[in-house]
Amino acid sequence: MIKKTLLFALLMLGSIAMVAQTTITGTVKDAKTGETLPGANIKISGKAVGTNTDFDGEFTLQTSDTPPFTIEISMLGYQTEKVEITKNKQKVDVSLTENETALDEIVVSASRTPERIMESPVTVERMDIRAIKNTSSPSFYDGLENLKGVDINTNSLTFKSVNTRGFATFANTRFMQLVDGMDNSSPALNFALGNLLGMSELDVKTVELLPGASSALYGANAFNGIMFMTSRNPFDDQGISVSLKTGLTSQDAAGDNEFYDFNIRMAYKFSEKFAAKATLSYLKGTEWFATDYRNTLNGQYVAGDRNSDRNYDGLNVYGDEVSTNIRGVAQSLEQLGLVPAGAAALVPSENISRTGYEERDLMNYNARSMKFGASLNYRPYGDDRLEVIWNSKFGVGNTIYQGLNRYNIRNFFMEQHKLEFRGKNFFVRGYLTNEDAGDSFDTRFAAININREWKDDNTWFGEYVGAYIGATLGGLTSDQAHALARQQAESGRFLPGTPEFQAAFDKVTNDPDLITGSKFQDNTKLYHVDANYNFQDMIDWAEFQVGASYRLYSLNSNGSIFTDYDGPIDYDEYGVYTQMQKKFLEDDRLKLTASLRYDKAQNFDGNFSPRVSLAYAAGEDKNQNFRASFQTGFRNPTTQDQYIGLNAGRAFLVGSAPDNLDRYTTPALTLSGAGATIAGTTSVTLTGRAAYENAFSASSVVQGAPTAANVELVKPEKVTAYEVGYRGIVGGNENRVTVDMSVYYNSYEDFISNNNVFVPFYGTVGDNSLSLAALANGDFTAFSTYTNSSADISSYGGSIGLNTRIFDGFNVGLNYTFAKFDFDQSTDPDFQAAFNTPEHKVKFQFGKTDLFENFGFNINVRWQDEYLWESTFHNAVIDSRTILDAQINYSIPKWKSIIKLGGANLTGQEYLSAPGVGAIGSQYYLSWTINN
User: I need a surface site. Which of 322, 545, 560, 745 has the fewest CB within 10 A?
Assistant: First the structure.
């Protein structure tokens, strides 16, 4: 399909020419410097007819229109100029005035209508083509981290998670990422896999990011923030652009490894009515190796290693989670007559773990991403009154995802197809997202079941105990007996690199049954329709908008993630909204914006989300903007919160949708010798309902005072958000400084969380009898439930950004972000807040685009203090760090090229973004971009 579409695009690009009657030529220059401006847009007003200036700032526009008509000359960062064309072969010389500051740039996301950043009623961060050219980061997506208030957590080389205002996670379901209006999230996972399957860098026009709740306009998932990536329209930007990037990633554990990143964009306007484009991206490299072998217990680091702790559980070692109390094993063997009577008394009551495999023996660290996109754009009237867009995107790649376990995402495939009708005042679009998990697998279960391929758990622990008893009776010390017992139990172990290990690995990673395998399957689909209409041409006293959306999930994991054993589970939600914007006072200095949205999800009551904001423009030139906003937001439980049914090794995960509780059943769970006597059976199975209705609080058991958990079913989470801010220009023309600052306060209700509980194999919690005996005998298992915290949780913070120019044109930027949250752990002992955000962050930028002719540079420095990272995988304090990125670039006008040499983390000091991920080293790159 991809090959056919690409061939079609290539044939179209060389097949049609436009017949013209009127020719206009001209030159576009910078009004201040007098230098010519390559890449400026020249367009006939109200029509799709246009062209661009070449590298000498010159243009030729041919059209079938006859004078008089008006042309518009525009360029990012400059004010648009209009020129009246009165005759054929008219020559036009235009000087464009640079915007005073970045605050003069136009954004759409804040209010779903074009407005200057200066006038936006909420905080907005923005990146455009110029910023992408100047970024010192290896990619535009990495460069987002230099924006004020933005955090990027690195899961792997190809999977970066964007977040704002706290509660970060790699599975960031609180933050929404839109690519040309399409939600780029995985339908099953409910979060975006970074830019693995997103947009080609050559096709990016703008990136806009709204920190904080945006539910009033964008629905339930825009809870922590939302990011909009908008691509270049083939009617406005034609030609063939190519980018070649190569370099090295350097890490102590992985060594120095080459990476390649290739992009091509082709766009052509065939007529005033029809245009098309195609993009292709390919990236290949090596992931950051994860080699943290420190010992862990209950999500914390503890002392010891495999030699000193017989129950060792290394962080990036898998398979050693399988552990049991060997006295219980001895008692069972004694009852079966397999060891001498009374021998169990020789065996200590001690937990012993199986020997695991290191992650590097299991994980494929080959990073790969291939993306193809194509769009066909049709304007039936030959202007922008109506445009019909068919857009298709395909992506396939390898990456690493860390959730409860570490997952090797291999040959993951996602496609999106959109049909959109767009006019000046409206849009209607519908799109489909489909995914295939490919050859992805869970590394923890891969290790567990490779171990079981050469020796099942009962045999391994039985041999261990038998050897221990024999050694003890032979006069060896306990330590000597343990060493001999492990040696005996390990006989026949498959060693990495051997054919036996590889055969077991291939078998296990292709088996979706987690009792014997580790593969996860997924073919989940998402269907989405939304529409918006702006009444600005019908109502003149205020601007009114209305809109609506509908979404249908079709969960289809064949029972490997969800409880969809008998076929796909369908789940839908919808929303409607309206917004009014009204300007008051002389010169429209005061702007009121009020929005209201109603959303309803299948399993929950509906929610209203209001937003009210005021923006006041002070100063003679209206360049002192004060703003304040109030809004509420909500977040629906994800599809996993409701319908997951998964054995994750350390716990069973069971979603809390009412129809999910009885659908999930655990595999057979083996009872202790004493438990078998009590229950009259050697094994039991549990339903998901037991986790919610017959369980002990995990924290209470650990503390030695078991109490009932009483877990309620999950419901939507709510936030009430307050924000005030200021944007403006301080100082005169020579010492002008732009200031952008804000402070916010968020109060949460029914915060969605996981509760860990212990379910006894027999008895009823609260009976003070059998259920307590189950705990004493080790006859219980852990479940992770999905519910809401009853605690009062709030977060607050602020940011300030300063930008200016010094020493005749050097750009200097400095911003600071503060973030903190309040939560009383005693009110909900089992709740894990997972704020996962540094309290203090400072970012600095220094550069010049024209240090001398055709040469520029940019330097970025980021510092953040230490912070606690909490997750179901592991908890740890992340050290403070200082990161230095830099680049130099050189333009070659006659080749229409830019060559860039740069690097990220140039100090070479490796750092972690979370416990368990690979340490992030340095990345060096050389790129050559041709824009034609």
Answer: 745
